[in-house]
TrEMBL record:
The entry's keywords: Membrane, Transmembrane, Transmembrane helix
Domain of life: Bacteria
Origin species: Candidatus Roizmanbacteria bacterium RIFCSPHIGHO2_02_FULL_38_11
Protein name stated in the entry: Uncharacterized protein
Residue intervals passing through the bilayer: 57-75, 87-107, 145-162, 182-203
Length: 210
C-alpha cells in the first residue's frame, strides 16, 4: 500500500529539489503557478507583492462591502433598475442555503475522506441555488442581463467572499491565494448565472415560461 504524507509549509528549492523544512517533497508541476506555501493558483500568476497578510486591509475591505450594501438598502438605490430588496427578497432562502452550504463545507465536508466527493456535491448545491435564483427572478421580477450580472456579483460576494474570509482567518492564506480563489469562484458563479439566465430568458421570449 502506498502512503502519501502531507507536509504544510513554505516550499523551498535546493539543487532543483523541493523541501518543506528538512523534508523533501514533490516539486510543483511545471506550467502551473503556485504560492510560496505550495497552494495551486488557477488564474493568477505568482505575484510576490500579494504574498502577504494584513488584518487592517481585510477589515477595510469587509467594512467597505458592508457600507456599500447598507447604502444600497437604506437609500433604495437602484442597480440596473432594481433595488437591493428586489434582488434579495424573492430568493432570500436560496442565499441562506448557499451560506449554510459553505459553512457545512468547512465544518464537516473537508473532514470527510471520500475523495472530495462531498465538497463537489456541496458545490453543486450552491450552483443549483444560483440557477434557481436566476430563474425565479427572471420569471417574477422581469430581470435582464444587467440584473443577472449584479446577481452574479451578489452571489460571488456571499459565497466566495465568505470562503475568502474563512481561509484568511482560519487557514492563514495570503492575499494572492485568496484573490485567485475568489476570482476563480466568481467566474464559476458568473458562468452559472449567464448560462442559466440566458436559457431562461430565451424560454421567456418564446413564451415557454411566463
Amino acid at each position: 500500500m502506498k502512503t502519501v504524507a502531507y507536509y504544510s509549509g513554505k516550499i523551498e528549492t535546493k539543487n532543483r529539489e523541493c523541501f518543506v523544512g528538512n523534508q523533501k517533497v514533490d516539486c510543483p508541476q511545471t506550467g502551473k503557478a503556485f504560492t510560496t506555501a505550495g497552494d495551486k493558483l488557477d488564474l493568477l500568476p505568482q505575484i510576490p507583492s500579494l504574498e502577504k497578510r494584513s488584518d487592517p486591509v481585510v477589515f477595510i475591505i469587509l467594512l467597505a462591502i458592508i457600507v456599500f450594501f447598507s447604502v444600497l438598502s437604506i437609500f433604495r438605490i437602484k442597480i440596473f433598475g432594481k433595488t437591493l430588496g428586489e434582488y434579495i427578497k424573492p430568493i432570500w432562502y436560496l442565499i441562506l442555503i448557499s451560506i449554510a452550504t459553505v459553512a457545512w463545507q468547512y465544518l464537516f465536508g473537508l473532514k470527510i475522506d471520500d475523495g472530495l466527493i462531498s465538497i463537489r456535491i456541496s458545490q453543486l448545491v450552491w450552483e443549483i441555488c444560483i440557477a434557481v435564483s436566476a430563474y425565479k427572478l427572471i420569471k417574477t421580477a422581469d430581470f435582464g442581463y444587467g440584473n443577472l450580472f449584479f446577481l452574479g456579483v451578489l452571489y460571488s460576494l456571499v459565497i466566495h467572499g465568505l470562503k475568502a474570509t474563512v481561509r484568511y482567518l482560519f487557514y492563514e492564506k495570503t492575499f494572492l491565494y485568496l484573490a485567485d480563489r475568489f476570482l476563480y469562484g466568481s467566474l464559476l458563479v458568473m458562468v452559472t448565472v449567464f448560462i442559466g439566465g440566458s436559457m431562461f430568458l430565451f424560454f421567456r421570449q418564446k413564451k415557454i415560461i411566463k
